[in-house]
Amino acid sequence: MSTKRIQQLFNIQYPIIQAGMVWCSGWRLASAVSEAGGLGIIGAGSMHPETLQLHIKKCREATTKPFAVNVPLLYPEMDTIMRILKDEKVPIVFTSAGNPNTWTAFLKDAGITVVHVVSSVKFAMKAEQAGVDAVVAEGFEAGGHNGREETTTLVLLPLVREAISIPLLAAGGIASGKAMLATEALGAEGFQIGSLFAASQESSAHENFKQKIVAANEGDTLLLMKEVTPVRLLKNKFFDDVLTAEKSGASKEELIQLLGKRRAKAGMFEGDMIEGELEIGQVAAGIKKVKPAAEIVNEIWNEYLVAKRELLKD
Domain limits of the chain? Predict the structure, then answer.
């Protein structure tokens, strides 16, 4: 596949999209990625409406290049958030965790490019029918909230590519140029990257969390909380508590009580590596250093080009 449709759709130099991650992707990260030639995304999932509006304004002050906002549709105050996106003339919105039929027409009527994140072929087709401009197919290797089907990126991408005609981005397990090239071979036209940018210098995540990411090894994450809302977590005491509860047959209500409030903020934003909820992808095992976002973009793009040339030589 060619990446041209995504580059033209977003008006970006490289088809590299930084994921909108809760507590990690504020205006500093989004503007840094956009300035480097990719598409930076402000993660609205951890923001009250007034905070989101401030981040949009600061991002626009920091870069003249396109940026996006990610909005989990199941969050509260959605009417207010959508009005802010329209009033602030945000150029691109990535929606997730909800029905794209609800807000796609509203956003498109405001001149906004709309992308929806899915974890199955069924929802990719529904997103296309809803009128979105592109779809992100996210395999269950990804960090954060995930699909119950546990379909891997390697399996999901070609299935979605066959089912839809609009531009397709890959997500889940991508943290290198070689991985980008592999997903392109399966039908991806652009590449959404989360964990690698969560550990970047400009990420709003706490330094403790960044260091926990770069110290992670293979097998240090697992998909838990399937009875509530599936989420991939890095192992710590909270992880162990959830795993123990699930193995003992805890009810959905008991798991919700264990999850409580502010767990994600306490872990990823405030640095509680013991009791906090630490959302990160399997690919954390391959991340060994905290780097500037621009350096990450340049490194993975150059690796992608080199890998592509090597394959063509063969």
Answer: 4-205+289-309, 214-283
Residue 112's identity, in one-letter code, is I
| H or E segment and range at residue 57 | helix 49-62
At 300, which amino acid appears?
I
Task: Spell out the alpha helix ranges (H) of 76-194.
Answer: 78-87, 104-109, 121-130, 153-163, 177-185
- Predicted structure pTM score: 0.94
Average pLDDT per block of 10 residues along the chain, 314 residues long: 93 98 95 98 93 97 98 91 97 94 96 97 97 97 84 97 98 97 97 98 98 97 86 94 90 84 90 96 97 98 96 77
Q: To which CATH superfamily is domain 4-205+289-309 assigned?
A: Aldolase class I (3.20.20.70)
Distances in whole angstroms, Cα of residue 46 to Cα of each of 13, 91, 291: 28, 20, 23
